[in-house]
Amino acid sequence: MNDTSSTRRTLRLGTRRSKLAMAQSGQVAEAVRKATGHPVELVEITTYGDVSREALAQIGGTGVFVSALRDALLAGEIDFAVHSLKDLPTGQPDGLLLAAVPKREDPRDVLVARDGLTFEQLPDGARIGTGSPRRMAQLNAWAREAGRRIETVPVRGNVDTRLGFVAKGELDAVVLAAAGLTRLGRLDEVTQYLPADRILPAPGQGALAIECVATNAPLAASLAVLDDPLTRAAVTAERSLLAALEAGCSAPVGALADLLVEEQAVTEMRLRGVVGTTDGSTLVQLSTTGPVPASEQDALALGRELAAEMLDKGAAGLMGERAH
Question: What is the DSSP letter of 4?
């Protein structure tokens, strides 16, 4: 049934089962209820990424969190799905539509360290947990620049698991996304917001993606009221850079599009990108600034242009095997 306006039927929202996914999906469900008047029920779906204990890079990057939800959409088992945008592969599959990208949460990474320490205060040889090659590359580069030594320790698991490593004294600190802790109401555990000029976030970090089947035009139109055009432009540019580097979601690539504001008016967009070796010995970090993209094509072009400059500076050689 494609006509969602004729009755107030219950819409089925597909979500991963993790506490964070349920929290952010619950927030979207409430927004959809308010926008459409339809009841919304959460349908929990287990993805391969949730049950595998292997490192993300070994099992195909963060796209492993998405495929089961997309299969459920195409099979008609759910009406729409909520993803963390940074988990989405850069190619949009046939038959599915990115109906809305709501206003983004804080895109930065944060440090949660023992004894309330900041990165600069951690002792030499500190063990910092992260499963992200992007974070490893930039943390190690920051330490090298300061003449210090740290150990980046690969970790998997949900937010509770990762914070538990610090609470139990197994690690000195972990790095997480600010947005996730915001949605879980756990920002009070943050000991430092990591500045973007040191640790660029993952492309799309802090943003959510609301996806439905392309043929359900009434539902797509209803969901579109949740779309934030400036957030969509920013994440489109970031993901275009990732795609143009031909890098997968698990590659050590960071990107952030900032909206520059003067006198309370958005004037320009600055896109920053970084690629590095995980030991932090080499980084390619560049930025470009231009008019706020007026269309999706403009945002895509901004990302491609910066990616081309980064490739000219040797970015391809820093990513290991490039994804195709």
Answer: -
Domain assignment present for residue 241? The answer is yes
Encode burial over 247-283: b for 16+ CB neighbours within 10 A, e otherwise. bbbbbbbbbbbeeeeeeeeeeebbbbbbbbbbebeeb
Residues 90, 212 share a domain: yes
Q: How far apart are CA 221 and CA 227, in angstroms?
A: 10
Residues 119 and 85 both lie in one domain? no
Annotated active-site positions, please?
87
Q: Which of 65-69, 182-186, 210-214 has the highest mean pLDDT?
A: 210-214
Q: Would you say residue 217 has pLDDT above 50?
A: yes
269 pLDDT exceeds 80?
yes
CA separation (Å) from 53 to 17, 58, 85, 158?
A: 16, 10, 22, 11
Domain that holds residue 179: 109-193
Percent of the chain whose pLDDT exceeds 70: 90
Q: What is the pTM of this model?
A: 0.89
In sequence order, which residues have a C-beta less than 8 Å from that of residue 176 and are 6 or more positions away?
A: 109, 110, 112, 159, 162, 163
Which residues is 284 bridged to in the sheet?
275
Please tell me whether residues 151 and 286 are part of one structural domain: no
Task: State whether 96 and 120 are in the same domain.
Answer: no
| 236 close to 88: Cβ distance less than 8 angstroms | no
**Listed range (172-181, 186-195, 250-259) with the worst mean pLDDT:** 250-259
- Indicate whether 97 and 113 sit together in one domain: no
Are 148 and 266 in the same domain? no
Q: What is the CATH number of the domain that holds 181?
A: 3.40.190.10
Q: What is the percentage of the chain residues whose pLDDT exceeds 90? A: 76
